[in-house]
């Protein structure tokens, strides 16, 4: 009996050893947003956002289209990433947000270099964060190049951050969306290492439509009067 108990305890101990790396690898990735208009990353704000009943920002949005985006001059892709792959991921992310709003006016255009773009993209050290997006009219989009192992592979490793999943979130911030409390949403501020979230959730789509589709239709009505 004693031998059996010892065997069970040894088995439980080995199980903990095996599972421990998985627990470590599931630590959260922090994605942030900020309303303050400036040219550098800042800490998350705790207030000052104009939020309506649909949980969408009702004023921080782009008013002229197409909204342009591009990389700042002299930006450097972190080691292990390919420039073309990164550009493709950025294009795909903007394409997914565009597809969510069925209005031809809601469009984006990539320009090179992106120093004069509405949304300026750059890799820079982001202590405590992996991605950071500023609301309009700033539109700055930052991705970490100091402590993040980015992945553009179909399946990221357990210690990597999926670039498309993170970019979808920070692009949403640069379009005017605040964080979501729905863990299934792209706009949820936490993304686990090794996980993917590459498609907008119904809540993401509803929020971006509330922010742009409704307001743009009223803009057209005002023009016609």
UniProtKB/TrEMBL annotation:
In the record, which residues are listed under signal peptide? 1-26
Q: Which sequence ranges are marked TM in the entry? A: none
Residues holding Zn(2+) 1: 147
A single GO BP: extracellular matrix organization
**Which UniProt keywords are listed?**
Calcium, Hydrolase, Metal-binding, Protease, Signal, Zinc
Report the cofactors. Zn(2+); Ca(2+)
What's a Gene Ontology MF term here? zinc ion binding
Pfam families, sorted: Peptidase_M10
Where does the chain bind Ca(2+)? 128
Residues holding Zn(2+) 2: 173, 187
Cellular component terms per the entry's GO annotation: extracellular matrix
Kindly state what the record says about how the cofactor is bound.
Binds 2 Zn(2+) ions per subunit. Can bind about 5 Ca(2+) ions per subunit.
InterPro entries named in the record: MetalloPept_cat_dom_sf, Pept_M10_metallopeptidase, Pept_M10A, Peptidase_Metallo
- Return the protein name: Peptidase metallopeptidase domain-containing protein
Question: Which lineage is the organism of this entry classified under, starting from the top rank?
Answer: Eukaryota, Viridiplantae, Streptophyta, Embryophyta, Tracheophyta
